[in-house]
Amino acid sequence: MGDLNFRLEYPLQKTLQILSEINEENWQTSLNFLTNREQLTLLRKGYDWLNEYKEMKIDFLPTYKYDGSSENYDKSSKRIPSWCDRILWKEGRDSEKIVIPVC
Asked: Which stretches make up the Inositol polyphosphate-related phosphatase domain (predicted)?
């Protein structure tokens, strides 16, 4: 768990364009497009041991990096918007799943 610093493997300007054009009709398609270009997702395809670790489905837009306290992505940054803070876990043989909804 933590700031694992995984980023999108996609050009900054193209990523910002996709994010600016998201609407109800293309939400899931756009989100799938971006998450399929995310570094952890790409690494999982090449390293089977990473697939032992679970993660909840990403169903929200990238959370990093915004301008100050706004809803606008930082366009001056060289860092591509992404999902940096992640929680991964490995289930034990006798583990039980408990999902706690958070607002």
From this structure: 1-94
